[in-house]
Specification:
about 180 residues; alpha/beta; 5 strands; about 35% helix
């Protein structure tokens, strides 16, 4: 409305962006409670790339050793993902959870190597055995630096409460 009035009154071309800028600066008073903001064109989200070293800071193997030294009664669970061989027509992946303290190995067949599949398994386990038992059995995870395990926030977040942590996760050094 303002744009058409100014064009009729002054016979000048004024852009919508100029009108929105005047409203933002307070030059034009606009009393409506809801104002339709102009969409910013060509605005792209930017992502900052960080190295694995920075991402895993505080979750490295040396941090794991320090944590175990401070918490002697914790149960360690080793986590890995194994690819099925094409020779035996085994398709998919096998996620293993090994608890050395009791020499017990869990195995879960996964259709893909996506982090969401790993999180689904942990959610399923926590729902089945409860938060307290989950923390007792799988409270401390040690795994490799595979891309499927790098969503540590989602892996560690409890299914019952998004602010509660269900486990701690640490990563082995590459090629060791």
């Amino acid at each position: 409305h303002i744009l058409s009035y100014l064009e009729m009154e002054y016979e000048e071309k004024i852009s919508k962006k100029t009108i929105y800028n005047w409203i933002d600066k307070g030059i034009i008073k606009y009393n409506k409670k809801k104002i339709k903001k102009m969409k910013e064109e060509n605005k792209k989200e930017t992502y900052q790339l960080i190295s694995r070293k920075e991402l895993l800071s505080g979750k490295e193997y040396k941090d794991f050793l320090k944590y175990v030294e401070e918490n002697k009664n914790c149960t360690i669970c080793e986590l890995d993902l194994v690819h099925g061989s094409n020779i035996n027509q085994v398709k998919g992946y096998l996620m293993t959870l090994f608890i050395p303290k009791v020499q017990f190995l869990f195995g879960f067949k996964l259709p893909n190597k996506q982090p969401q599949s790993i999180v689904k398994i942990f959610d399923w386990l926590e729902k089945r055995i409860g938060h307290r038992n989950f923390r007792r059995l799988f409270g401390l995870l040690l795994t490799d630096q595979g891309s499927e395990f790098l969503k540590f926030d989602a892996i560690c977040k409890s299914v019952y409460d998004s602010y509660t942590s269900r486990c701690k996760i640490f990563y082995c050094d590459p090629k060791s």
